[in-house]
Each structure stands twice: as C-alpha cells, then as structure tokens.
Specification:
With 168 residues, the chain is mainly beta. The protein contains two helices and eight strands. It has an eight-stranded antiparallel sheet. Strand 2 and strand 3 form a beta hairpin.
Length: 168
C-alpha cells in the first residue's frame, strides 16, 4: 500500500513538472473605452495587448444584449477621430459575435502599408467603430465608437459620430 501511494505521489510530481506553454503576451496593454453611438443599448472597450513577437492583439468587447442567432457586427480601425467624415479604414477587425459580444484580431499591416508597434499604438491617431451591419442602410448605424491612441474620447458626443467611408 505504501508503494502504491509513493508511486502516485511520484507520478503526480512528474506530471506537475511537465512543460507549460509560454505566455504569448509581454504584459503590456492599453485599454480604450467605446461609447454608445445609436439607439441600441451597447457600449464597450478595446484592449490592445503586446505579443512577445512584437505584434498586437486587439480584443473588442461590447456590453449589451446578446443573441442566440449566428450574427456578427462588422468592426473597423480607422485613421483620425470618430467625428471625421469619410475617415479611411486602417484595418478591418474581426467581426464582433452577437452571441458573446467579443472579437479578437491580431493586427497586421495597415491600409497605408505601415505596421504599429505597442509604442506607436499609444500615439496612433485613430478610432474604432462597430456597425450594425456590413452593408445597406444598417451600415450607417454605428453601435459603438471611440477614439484611440492620442485622440481623447473625453466629452464623447454620439451626435458627432461620422458615418464611415468604406475606403482604405
């Protein structure tokens, strides 16, 4: 019986020493608030995490009513402030699922050919918008929006949210 218990203890010890996957993040992150921008009851945030390989991971989260339908809301990273007309799309983010109101995107090359480092993201002149639909009249409905980087969102005014251009 003692040998059995000793054997189990040794096995448990060896199992606990197995390699764990390395953490893909550096521990540095930025967070930006996204504000209600329509009659729909959503707000949210954008969290930017630096990966150990230098890339950036962007996580969008909306707070509001979820749905059981398989639907998603298109999301874009734009150049300039949220109140700028026809601000070009810098990067198309993965759509936000209506089921869990979440989206994760690894940021790649922007539409102007540049790539953002963590330091550059904190100084980026841009904003994020999440739309009700990908096309048609509901494309003009912006569920949430907010400036990121150097553009402060203090004093956010939903009446000033400009409809996005689809240009890159």
């Amino acid at each position: 019986m003692k040998k059995l218990i000793l054997g189990l203890v040794v096995m448990a010890g060896l199992w606990s020493c197995s390699e764990q996957e390395p953490d893909p993040y550096t521990g540095r992150q930025l967070e930006f608030e996204l504000f209600k921008s329509s009659d729909y009851d959503f707000d949210g945030n954008l969290v930017v995490k630096e990966l150990t390989d230098g890339n950036l991971e962007l996580t969008l989260r909306m707070d509001g009513p979820t749905s059981n339908t398989d639907y998603s809301f298109p999301a874009h990273l734009h150049f300039g402030s949220y109140d700028q007309e026809d601000s070009p799309i810098a990067f198309i983010l993965n759509p936000v699922s209506a089921k869990d109101l979440k989206s994760v995107t690894q940021l790649g090359q922007l539409s102007d050919g540049s790539r953002l480092t963590f330091e550059e993201m904190s100084q980026f002149d841009g904003h994020v918008k999440i739309h009700l639909a990908n096309e048609g009249p509901d494309y003009k409905v912006i569920l949430v929006a907010g400036n990121i980087g150097i553009n402060p969102s203090a004093g956010f005014d939903a009446q000033k949210v400009a409809v996005c251009g689809k240009d890159f």
